[in-house]
Amino acid sequence: MDSTALWQRYIDWLYYHEGLGFYVDISRIRFDDSFVDTMKPKFEKAFRDMEELEAGAIANPDEKRMVGHYWLRNSELAPTPEIQTEIDDTLEKIEAFTKKVHTGEIKPPKATKFTDILSIGIGGSALGPQFVAEALGLDHPPMQIHFIDNTDPAGIDRVLNKLSDRLHSTLVMVISKSGGTPEPRNGMMEVKAAYTSQNLDFAPHAVATTTDGSKLYQIAESEGWLNTIPMADWVGGRTSELSSVGLLPAALQGIDIRAMLEGAKEMDIATRQKDIKNNPSALLALSWYAVGNGRGEKDMVVLPYKDSLLLFSRYLQQLVMESLGKEKDLDGNIVNQGIAVYGNKGSTDQHAYVQQLRDGVPNFFATLIEVLEDRQGNSPEVEPGVTSGDYLSGFLQGTRQALYENNRDSITVTIPLVNPKNVGALIALYERAVSFYASLVNINAYHQPGVEAGKKAAATVLELQQKVVNILKQETSPLSLEELAKKAESLNQIEIIYKILRHLEANGRGIVFHGDIKQPARLAVSVINSM
Q: Which of 125, 149, 400, 513 is the most exposed place for a label (fewest CB within 10 A)?
């Protein structure tokens, strides 16, 4: 296509939101008008599905739950007065608590004010807050935030070591809908132990974000934690950033949460339009479908050209992949749907993998995130008439052009600047794009049986660990792995038993291997207290 035709296509398919200053450009996705015509009936269904979702239809069949993250930014849309009151009251509670913490009215026993935040969560309870902290964190925030988002002991130690001399002035947030998810539960137990090691009482430093009556709620109430912030059961983790999960840590960092909600509300209004060309989320979903043939045949490479949006690709990984990665469609057919997401930032990663993107396997499409404002204030010239920001813009435009010239498709999303309102709108833009795409390919975006299967498998491994260790403790001589597996009635799990024992031995947990470690099948094993 020549430059004149490309310019016309750009004009024809460019979306602009005047209130937000957002642009969505899908002109470098190759599809024609006939494709759009074939997609119109699918979009009519997608628009109906969205109306039902926002009206309170049960969207998560596994847990019989509604999915109402859209109500969070406009509580008047909530399906019942009770839910509207819940949303409004929670927001006011977050703001009131934050004000008391910042003024020192709520303070730790051994300091005049809280200086740091330690957020303990997993998945959406960590990715959203981390993205927002990186994108919107102030240069001199009222409180510094730190995250424990895994059950990796070394990672936990690294965070706690950074906070060791300020643990007494650290506010700990434990975020878990049920209170039973292992990663935040483990993080909480580790942090409690750290407080005990410094002769500090954990409870006056702790806040729980959880559902009423959950295990975590009961712990917080019985131990007298500082506060319990409600988490709605109709908000899923990957869409929870604009709920109490993300709003409390953002507010404590001094980020304008009302502006985030306002931006999301404006974008929600725009993405309710029932015309594909005038609906930015529909344009994204249309592009995803076109480039991957409705089968996720190409990966989404996300390149935000702004350092503060570094974690946006990681945030989108969960939102897109957990929502769309499904084995079965709504009719029970095996479809193995999904779109793989990866990326980092431009122009840094042009030096890392744009070479392959342009010349290698054409198994992707790019999403370029452009920010028009370079910085607050004037920029010095690095060359006559040229600033660093000009270079950044040039790299983005050059990459987009180089990709297209070699038959690589791309989408460009442009925002005026990175601020709370625009970040809220960006979150809302992609939340609804995921919903639309799920409808187009006939899957449920709001359940995650694969994740639950992984959790159950992990629990089974831990049960097996307890069993084999107890068997070894009762033995007076070493057992071969096969003998141990027979006693545990788990002959089909010898490999897992070996890996369990190898991990325990490496961590000085009383396991002793006998024989050549290079030949696992010939090893015998015992525990120290049985020798």
A: 513
Q: In this predicted model, what pLDDT tens digit does every residue of 117-164 receive, in sequence order?
A: 999 999 999 999 999 999 999 999 999 999 999 999 999 999 999 999
Catalytic residue among 40, 140, 351, 456: 351
Residue 88's identity, in one-letter code, is D
**Catalytic position from the list 241, 266, 322, 431:** 322
pTM of structure? 0.93
If you average pLDDT over residues 333-362, what whole number do you get?
A: 88
3-state secondary structure of 74: coil
Q: Are strands 14-17 and 22-25 parallel, antiparallel or unpaired?
A: antiparallel
345 is catalytic: no
Contact 230, 390 (CB under 8 A): no
Q: One of 107, 455, 467, 486 is an active-site residue; which one? A: 455
- CB count, 10 Å around CB of 285? 27
* β-pairing verdict for 116-120 and 170-175: parallel
Write the DSSP string, 111-153. SSS--EEEEE--THHHHHHHHHHHHH--SS-SSEEEEE-S--H
- Whether residue 313 is preceded by a cis peptide bond, meaning omega within 30 degrees of 0, is no
The question of whether 241 is a catalytic residue gets the answer no
How many alpha carbons lie under 13 Å from residue 125 in its C-beta half-sphere? 25
